[in-house]
């Protein structure tokens, strides 16, 4: 297995775009990591999300492609209707298997796949949403030594997902507002 770069996986559902749009322009000026974003999106979503993020960030923003190599300073968006997996050779894999938590992409699938490889080089961030996708993945990631952040329910437009994660993880997850999440990203990138 090759040396892996530090990785941040951000998962979200209903109400999470607000936080993503706030994070995008504040990503660390000197990138030392890669970011994967897994959002519950409709199959017929167009590329407007990619364009909107690209307009807000100096990082490279792209929809993830199968067998694409993760690169420092890139943000990869999981395409609609695919699970996104991380592979030991530092590449991304797209998978069209059954939905998990009624979702494809599933945040759980990506968190678990990333945690199995990246362990302490992984930061999982769970944002706003209306179901519990991501909770089991964060529990698995915690057992692998990953750092966990849950968006403060007080800031989440749909607090159900963060509340489920907090209930399941207790003190294993940091509960942070968006500004503190930005600082955590900077810290993780500098020491990862």
What does this entry look like structurally?
The structure is a single chain. The protein has helices at about 15-25, 50-55, 105-120, 135-145, 160-170, 180-190, and strands at about 5-10, 35-40, 60-65, 75, 85, 90-95, 120-125, 145-150, 175. The chain has about 190 residues and is an alpha/beta fold. It has a single domain (about 5-190), classed as Rossmann fold, CATH 3.40.50.180. The chain has a 7-stranded parallel sheet, with helices on both faces. Strands 5-6 form a two-stranded antiparallel sheet. It is globular and about 35 Å long.
Please give the number of β-strands: 9
User: What value does the Rg take, in angstroms?
Assistant: 15 Å
- Spatial sequence of strands, sheet with the most strands: 3-4-2-1-7-8-9
Which homologous superfamily in CATH is the superfamily?
Methylesterase CheB, C-terminal domain
At CATH level 2, the architecture is 3-Layer(aba) Sandwich
Runs in which pLDDT lies below 50 for 5 or more consecutive residues are none
Q: What is the count of structural domains?
A: 1
Termini separation comes to 18 Å
The CATH class is Alpha Beta
Average pLDDT, rounded to a whole number, is 92
Tell me the β content: 15-25%
**What is the overall silhouette?**
globular
Q: Class by helix and strand content?
A: alpha/beta
How many strands, what sense, and barrel or not for the largest sheet? 7 strands, parallel
Could you name the CATH topology? Rossmann fold
């Amino acid at each position: 297995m090759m040396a892996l770069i530090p990785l941040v996986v951000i998962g979200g559902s209903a109400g999470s775009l607000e936080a993503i749009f706030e994070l995008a322009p504040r990503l660390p000026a000197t990138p030392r990591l890669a970011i994967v974003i897994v959002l519950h999106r409709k199959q017929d979503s167009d590329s407007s999300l990619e364009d909107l993020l690209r307009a807000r960030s100096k990082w490279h923003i792209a929809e993830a492609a199968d067998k694409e190599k993760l690169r420092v300073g890139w943000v990869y968006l999981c395409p609609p209707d695919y699970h996104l997996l991380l592979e030991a050779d530092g590449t991304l894999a797209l998978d069209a298997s059954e939905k998990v938590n009624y979702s494809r992409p599933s945040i759980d699938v990506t968190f678990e796949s990333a945690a199995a490889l990246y362990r302490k080089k992984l930061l999982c961030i769970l944002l706003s949403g209306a179901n519990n996708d991501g909770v089991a993945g964060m529990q698995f990631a915690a057992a692998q030594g990953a750092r966990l952040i849950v968006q403060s329910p007080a800031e989440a437009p749909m607090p159900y997902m963060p509340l489920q994660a907090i209930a399941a993880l207790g003190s294993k997850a940091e509960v942070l507002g968006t500004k503190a999440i930005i600082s955590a990203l900077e810290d993780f990138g500098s020491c990862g």
